[in-house]
Amino acid sequence: MSTAYQPDLQKNNLKQYFQFRELPILLYIIVIIIIFSTMIDGFFTVKSFENISRQITTIGIVSVGMTLVILTGGIDLSVGAILSFAINIGGQGIVLGWPIWLVYTVMLALGVLLGFINGFLITRVAVPALIITLGTMNIYRGITMVITDGIYITGIPSSFQTVGYGFIPLVFFVIVLAFFIFMTLQTRFGRNLFAIGEGGQSALYSGVPVNKYKIISYVLSGFLSALAGIILVGKSGFIQPQAGMGYEMSAIAAVVIGGTSIFGGSGSILGTFLGSVFMGIIIAGLTMLAINPFWIGFVTGVLIIFAIALDSLRQRRKG
Amino acid sequence: MKNISSGKAKTFFVLIGVNILIIILLTILSPTFVTYGNLSAVMQRMSELGMLAIAETIVFISGGFDLSIGVVMALSGAVAGTLNAMGVPFGLVILIALLVGVGVGVLNSFFVVNLKLQPFIVTLATMSILRSIVYALLKGNVLTGLPTGFLDLGYFYILKIPFLFIVFIVTGVLVAILLNKTITGRKIFAVGGNEQTAFLSGIYVGKIKYLVYILSGLISAMAGLMFTIRIRAVIPDAGLNAPLEVVTAVLIGGTTIYGGKGSVLGSILGILAMYLLLNGFSLLGLNPFWNVIILGIILIVVVGQEGIGKSLKMLLPGKNREMEAL
Questions:
Q1: CATH (residue range B2-286)
Q2: What is the pLDDT of residues A38-78, one digit of tens each?
Q3: Which chain B residues contact residue A204 at CB under 8 A?
Q4: Which listed site, A90, A200, A302, B310, has its alpha carbon 20 to 30 Å from B269?
C-alpha cells in the first residue's frame, strides 16, 4: 500500500510533496519549455503563455474534479458530457432571456445534480464507476443532443464573455487549485479521500462515511465540469452540443501524468495542475510547429502509458 | 456449478424474451419491419459490431478490458485502403490489415502482461494513439477505390443470408467452441476467475492473456474489413462509438467485467436486441440519439441489477455493502 505519499499532519506537507512526486514532472516542464523556446521563435513570450493559460484552464478545472474522484479509487468518464449538458440545457435560459446570475446558477446546479446521480448510482448499486459513468456519459450526451437537436446557441450577450477575457480564466483556475489543494491537504474530508482510495476496509472501520464522501467527490467533479463549461462559453462566445467531447481522456491524462495513481489512494491536485500545464505546453508547441493536430491524441496516449508505467514501477518498488 | 448454469439459462431466456418482444412490437408498429430487405439490412449492419462483441467477450472472460476494439476496426480498414492505393497486391493487403490487428493485440498485452498495467487505461491510451494514426493515414478523408470484387462480398448471399452475417455467426461458433470445448478455453475462464489460483495450478497466465488480446485484435481487424465491405469505403471515424455499444451488449449478455463468467451466445443476443431497437427507432422516425440514451440506461440497469441482486442475496445491512463496494 502506498502510505508514503499520504499527507502527513506532523510534517510540512508542501515540502514532502516536492520531495517525492512532483519534482520529475516539474523537470519535464522546464525541459520542454527550453526545447520549444529554442525551436520556435516567439514561444517564450507573454502572449504565448497567455494562450497556453487560456487553453489549459477548461480541461485543468475538469482535471481537478477528476483527481478527487480518482483519489477515492473511482473514475468519472462523464465529465465532458456533464459540461455539455450543463451549458446547453442551462443555455436555454439565455435564449429565454434570463439574467446572467440565474443562468450560471442553473448551469452549476445541473453539474451538481448530474454528479450526484453518478455518485448515488456508484455507491448504491455497487457497480464499478467505470461502467456507471460510461453509461451516464452517454445518457447525458444523448439527452443534450435530443433536447438541443444539435443546434448551437449563438448571439449570447457579451456579459457572458467576461469570464473568458485574457487571463481571467487563469484566475478562476488558480482559485480552484488553491481551494482544492487546501481541501485535500488540510481538511478531514480531503484526507479521508486518500484513505478511501487506499481500498480495504480501514477507512470504513475508522468511521469514515465512505459512501457519503464518494458521492461528494462525484458532485464536486460535476460542479467543476459545469464551471469549466461556463468559462468555455466565455472564451468561445457560443454554445455547441458537442462541447467537451474527449475531455474525459485529456483529464485522465493530466491526472496520471501529474503522478496520481490510477488505483486511487495517492496523488495530488498540484500534480494534476503540473500535468495539465505539461500537456498544454506540448499541445501549444506542436500547434506552433504546425504539426497536424491529429497527433495530439498520439502524444496524449504515449504520455498516459509512460505515466502509468512509472506509477506501476513505483508501486512495485514499495512492494 | 449448477447455480452458474441455471443463472446462465435464465439470462438466455430473458434475452430471447426481450428479442421476441421487440420483434412483436416492431411488427405491429411498423409495416416495413418484417420485410426481407429490412431484415437482411439489420443482419448486415449488426455483423461488424457483433464481431467486436465476440472479441470483447473473450477479453472480459479473461478478466481484462479492451477499449481499442473500435479503433482497430478503423485502423485495419485504413491500412487496407492505404496499401491498396499504393498498388500492393490485394491478397497481401488483406493479410497485412489482419496482421495490424494482431500487432495491436501484442502491443496491448505487452503493456498488460509485461509492464503489469491496468488494461482499461492502457487500451484507453492505445485507442487515442491509434486513432491519431488512422487520421494521419487518411488525412481525415474518406478513401474509396478498393477492388470491386472485394467490395461485392457485401452483395453476396448464401440461401438469402448475407455473407457478412455468416462470417459473424461462424466466428461466434468457433469462439464459443474455443471457450467451452477446449483446454485453452477453460484456461481463459480460469485466469479470469482467479488469476492467482490459475497461476498456482500451472497455467501460463501471461501466455493466455497474450492469446486473448491477440484474438481480440484479429477479430476486430476482421470487423474492420467487413465494415469497409459494407459501406464500400474507408472512413476515419469508423468504430468511434463502438466501445460503449459493444461493452453494453456484452454486459447485457451476462458476461461480467470481473472475469471468469460469460458467453458468446449472450453477447450475440445482446447485439441483436440492440440492433433491433436501433432499426425500430429509425423505422419509427425517432431521433437516433434516443438510442444512445436507452443504451446507457440499459447498461446501468443490467449491471446494477446484478449488484443489487448480489447484495440482496447476502442479506447484508447497508454498512457491509459499503465494504463490498470497496
A1: 1.10.3470
A2: 888 888 888 888 888 888 999 999 999 999 999 999 999 99
A3: 319, 322-323, 326
A4: B310
